[in-house]
Amino acid sequence: MSAKKQTYSGNQGLVLEEALIFEIGVASKCGVDMEAIPDTGSMLGDCAAEQAVDLPGLSEPEAMRHYVRLSQKNHSIDAGLYPLGSCTMKHNPRLNEKMARLPGFGDIHPLQPQSSVQGALQLMDTLAHWLKTLTGMPAVALSPKAGAHGELCGMMAIRAAIEAKGELATRKRVLVPESAHGTNPATAALLGFKVDGIPADANGRVDLQAFKAKLSENGGEDVAAIMLTNPNTCGLFERDIIEIADALHEVGGYFYCDGANFNAIVGRVRPGDLGVDAMHINLHKTFSTPHGGGGPGSGPTVLSDRLAAFAPLPFVVDEGDGFKLIEDASQTDQPSFGRMVAFHGQMGMFVRALSYMMSHGSDGLRQVAEDAVLNANYVLASLKDVMTAPFNGPCMHEALFDDGFLKGTGIDTLDFAKAMIDEGYHPMTMYFPLVVHGAMLIEPTETESKATLDLFIGTMRDLVAGAKSGDLARFKQAPELAPRRRLDETLAARNPVLRWRQPEPDTQVTGQAAE
Ligand SMILES: *Cc1c(COP(=O)(O)O)cnc(C)c1O
């Protein structure tokens, strides 16, 4: 492997360096010919700007190249395998994009009269139907705009139900397994609940005895809910889920299921059959709508009979001769907990998700789950003789390893992940779930071919061999081939520099300093 080469231009082959637009543009340049503004005098009074706004000026080809080069620095699922566990980075079919751009969906505005957007409302109603069918739940709130927002929606419905029973002052405790995604305890805390952790057992699942002990404190009268992920964040199915749900319901608590991992069970398991009261579905994970740098999330939340009446506004009703968006509390008898978003949710994601469902069909959706689990188990089985898997047995949709195999090498999980970048792979999820030391969580998804996985597995095995043979440089120096090396991510997060400023005349800005 050749390290980065010093070049005169700073470019690496055809991977071109790119400075900030402010560094390459000059205020005096303009990419378009504009006619001089006729001197009509300003009507802005004292609102008129007193100095130039200092926008960088570029010619059309310069502007074009700047943005194209920047776009090439954004690693994406369209460029290569993106095995980020828990994030379900699967291929986004182009058919969905085509559907979302149909003028009847893409060019409408939420403030249009409802009579002029009947097709869009029907699409929302149809999507709701399939989400309810796939989950076995009677109601769904479409408006939440991400998984965490869906958690908030479900927990607000739970809080409203507890309040309606006059128990809000006493039901304050929310049980959260230690392996939970950080958004679970954050959601509970945001709503004023007290988070009470449940330990995992030696098999990486909720410790049933510990759960029952927690539940029986104070006779369970102060338990508002449990927030449980299934399959959980160790990539394992919670086998005791029905027993957990029954015990919880017996003491009057509610079951929030984090459904972000629905990809592993869609078409195979209906959460409604497991005693779930509320669960968000990440359309951007399971139903393949572009996310991360590629698009917004969407977190529809299904609700059980016990919670359906508290669903947020607005929602669509089929009135037989047309569809209506119920936007105001005065239009319904239901004790809705209110409104979470300005309009109705992420229309573009609704279209993509329904397009995905309809193009797969019910048999295809079941196969999604089967293939996602098969691919993850292929990775697990192909690597567990050289990497260490903390739990025995097969996994669901993601393969979890710990850093046991790196013991004594001087290399840690972070070094290993950085070395993957030099090999052309986005690293897996690192150090999550927290219950596993130096965790590496790999989610290949069902859209990767065997050939792609075989190359990935071969690369991982080669990296392990390198680590064990003491090739420290390959890890400690990594990434060597990326446009930037190791950045101080903590400093960047704590002290973000979001605004470019003209450097002092005597200081030279170099590529190094910009890092
Ligand atoms: C992705 C994820 C979430 C949060 O979803 P966002 O859309 O990122 O807000 C919550 N829980 C789990 C288990 C997840 O994987």
Keywords:
binds pyridoxal-5'-phosphate; 16 helices; alpha/beta; 34% helix; seven-stranded mixed β-sheet; single chain; 12 strands; three-stranded antiparallel β-sheet; Aspartate Aminotransferase, domain 2; 9% strand; 515 residues; disordered C terminus
Please tell me about this protein's structure.
34% of the residues lie in helices and 9% in strands. It contains 16 helices and 12 strands. Strand 2 (173-177), helix 7 (183-190) and strand 3 (194-198) form a beta-alpha-beta unit. The strands form 3 sheets. A 7-stranded mixed sheet has the order 1-7-6-5-4-2-3, sandwiched between helices. Strands 10-12-11 form a 3-stranded antiparallel sheet. The structure holds pyridoxal-5'-phosphate. Pyridoxal-5'-phosphate is lined by residues 86, 146-148, 181, 183, 229, 233, 258, 260-261, 282, 297, 299.
A few lines on this structure:
The chain is built from 16 helices and twelve strands.
CATH architecture label name of the domain at 95-357:
3-Layer(aba) Sandwich
The biggest sheet, with number of strands, parallel, antiparallel or mixed sense and barrel status, is: 7 strands, mixed
> Helix segment count?
16
Number of E-type strands: 12
DSSP strand (E) fraction?
5-15%
Would you give the CATH topology of the domain at 95-357?
Aspartate Aminotransferase, domain 2
Termini Cα gap: 24 Å
Name the hetero compounds present.
pyridoxal-5'-phosphate
Overall geometry comes to globular
Helix and strand content put the structural class at alpha/beta
Mean pLDDT: 93
- The residue ranges in which pLDDT falls below 50 over 5 or more consecutive positions are 511-515
Helix content: 25-40%
Q: C-alpha Rg, in Å?
A: 26 Å
